[in-house]
Amino acid sequence: IFDRVKEAPPDPILSISAAYRADPSPKKVNLGVGAYRTDDGSPYVLPIVKHFEQQFANDPSTTHEYLPQDGFTNFNYHSARLILGHDSSALKEERVVTVQALSGTGALRIGFAFIANFIGNRLVYIPNPTWSNHRNVVPQAGLPPTKNYRYFEPNTRAVDIEGLLQDLSIAIEGSIVIFHGCAHNPTGADPSKADWQRILKVVKSKKLVPFFDNAYQGFASGNLDTDAWSTRLFVESGIDMFVAQSYAKNMGMYGERVGALNVILSSSGPVTAVKSQLKQLIRAMYSNPPLHGARIAAAIMSDKESFRQWEMELEKMSARIQTMRLRLRDALNKNGAPGNWDHIVNQIGMFSFTGLTSQQVAFMRDKYHIYMTSNGRVSMAGLTESTVDYVADAIKDAVES
Ligand code: LMR
What we know:
Layout: H1 14-22, E1 29-30, H2 47-58, H3 73-84, H4 89-92, E2 96-102, H5 103-119, E3 124-128, H6 134-140, E4 147-150, E5 152-153, E6 158-159, H7 161-169, E7 176-180, H8 193-205, E8 209-214, H9 229-236, E9 241-246, E10 258-264, H10 271-285, H11 292-302, H12 304-335, H13 343-346, E11 351-353, H14 358-368, E12 370-371, E13 377-379, H15 388-400
Parallel strand pairs: 1-12, 3-4, 3-7, 7-8, 8-9
Antiparallel strand pairs: 2-10, 5-6, 9-10, 11-13
């Protein structure tokens, strides 16, 4: 029965981590996967996460009972408020259904399964370029393969807003559109506030259904509210939409798979039906989500002082990334690498879309043991004071070769 199974291509992001792990060179540098590293290159457990982890471990009343299908109630409550804002009219009018999800990917997966089952066989438009997994999740959920809309202009290294608006204005009415709420992955280029207003206008006139993917809230500007601006603009306009959240990056709980899917309805009538069907879908997929990470995230978000500590840690992490942007740009200017490297400091979030070609990326991997995705995306969080000059010199060599 297995003879007709063909080998799947390696994942363009996760295969980089595997290749890095297998490389015995002491000089190796991993700039592939978007995971925060400290200045000595180590994974980082946020002190506030560790604090609650220890507290729960020592608390005799801690159990490992099942959660309901839609997850930890206190987590869902705070998660919705984190992204939509405490004053959200959608929350006040009880037009939001929030379910805990297996991080951002899981939220997308449930959302698209819900769309396939209950909204219909709609087309899904994704930005070009986008996070590679968007292209996997949509058809896996039973929808047609995704369609691209223009997003990035390589010459200006900025959002191609006119191309984007044009493509959405000829999209099939009622289609779903994925937007990155902030810190666009991989380009690090976000629409301006004025751009978002124009995008919303087209979305409304074409009755498009936005699906916001928010994997980096707090990582673009260092401020959780600022990074929720675009999502809130769309939600406050009163349309039907979906919002995915992840706590992988902003709480550093990558492996705990903590996230949420928010379905925002234009009217509260179908809320109970939507919630019941989401629970049913989850029951059939994995029954109920894991408790550990959600318990920690809920504890952080529901206590004022802990929330403040989290905000300070976010500011610290995004400041280190910002410092690395400046250090890399300056090192490239200093070593005379041909070209203008200002985009490295102008882009935001965890990544820099360097403009390096796939050949240059391969050259750096083979000669210098520096790993990044083949589209030239560099995880700035993977750079440290002790590797930044080495990486800058390797980029110079790759560009000149
Ligand atoms: C990335 O883009 O590197 C991260 O979002 C990790 C992932 O799952 O791909």
